């Protein structure tokens, strides 16, 4: 058997690539959309699950700009800009929500058409303060949900980039964010990606319910391309389904 069921059977982990899916049809048919193959020899290839034609893709980017990110200003801005250009290059209908956070959170782009997203200038990203990660994630999900309700078949991915751990949120707790991420993943059309410079990033992401396959640790000494490449490669695998 090349899979294992997780979260009481509502999710499935592919033992080949390590990614977890909560798409009901994929779990039912034991199909990995990342490897693009069935994970059991008992299922005939002829009954491959039918995937919906998504009418909108919503991208959320939750970007840490706390004081500890000061040495990564160029990496964060250039990496974000490369990420937007890459996703824009897919040529599919998409909108982007950008939430930046330090001691508080700030909504920069509210479900803006991807074609209209401007580049981020170095001067626009000034790290300072603490880390209100949970509030930023919670409000970003709420912002994307409002837009998602306008479409019959939309899917969403949220990329979370941080170099540390929560220490400043006032509205959302750890338990609330873990429950929120779990409930969104269970809907089958949400995915979360966690990019962290924290040595404990993997365990922190897993504690929040984000799979190891969607978690990347980057070095604070790396070039700007490292951040954008990590985001792009993860988005390729879990947001833009290669079967569509």
Describe the structure in your own words:
This protein has 244 residues and is an alpha/beta fold. The chain folds into 2 domains: 45 residues, no CATH class; 183 residues, Rossmann fold (3-Layer(aba) Sandwich). It is built from 6 helices and 11 strands. It has a 6-stranded mixed β-sheet, sandwiched between helices. Strands 1-2-3 form a 3-stranded antiparallel β-sheet. Strands 4-5 form a two-stranded antiparallel ribbon. Helix 2 packs parallel to helix 6. The two termini are 26 Å apart.
- Counting DSSP E segments of at least 2 residues, the number of strands comes to 11
End-to-end distance: 26 Å
Q: SSE order in H/E notation?
A: EEEHEEEHEEHEHEHEH
Whole-angstrom Rg: 18 Å
Strand order in the sheet with the most strands:
8-7-6-9-10-11
- The average pLDDT value, as a whole number, equals 83
Helix content: 25-40%
Instruction: Give the full name of the CATH homologous superfamily of the largest domain.
Output: von Willebrand factor, type A domain
Largest sheet: 6 strands, mixed
What is the CATH C-level name of the largest domain? Alpha Beta
Percent range for β-strand residues? 15-25%
By CATH, the architecture of the largest domain is named 3-Layer(aba) Sandwich
CATH topology group of the largest domain? Rossmann fold
């Amino acid at each position: 058997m090349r899979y294992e069921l997780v979260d009481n059977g509502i999710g499935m982990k592919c033992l080949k690539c390590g990614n977890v899916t909560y798409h009901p049809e994929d779990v039912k048919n034991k199909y990995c959309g990342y490897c693009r193959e069935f994970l059991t020899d008992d299922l005939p290839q002829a009954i491959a699950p039918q995937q919906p034609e998504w009418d909108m893709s919503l991208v959320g980017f939750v970007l840490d700009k706390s004081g500890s990110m000061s040495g990564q200003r160029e990496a964060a801005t250039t990496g974000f800009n490369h990420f937007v250009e890459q996703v824009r290059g897919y040529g599919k209908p998409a909108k982007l929500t950008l939430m930046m956070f330090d001691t508080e959170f700030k909504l920069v782009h509210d479900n803006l058409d991807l074609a209209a997203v401007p580049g981020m200038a170095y001067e626009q990203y000034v790290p300072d303060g603490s880390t209100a990660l949970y509030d930023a994630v919670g409000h970003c999900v709420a912002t994307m949900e409002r837009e998602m309700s306008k479409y019959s078949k939309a899917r969403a991915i949220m990329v979370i980039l941080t170099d540390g751990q929560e220490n400043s949120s006032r509205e959302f707790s750890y338990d609330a964010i873990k429950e929120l991420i779990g409930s969104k993943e269970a809907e089958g059309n949400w995915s979360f990606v966690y990019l962290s410079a924290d040595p404990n990033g993997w365990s922190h992401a897993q504690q929040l319910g984000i799979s190891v396959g969607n978690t990347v640790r980057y070095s604070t000494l790396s070039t700007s391309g490292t951040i954008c490449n990590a985001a792009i490669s993860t988005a390729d695998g879990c947001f833009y389904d290669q079967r569509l």
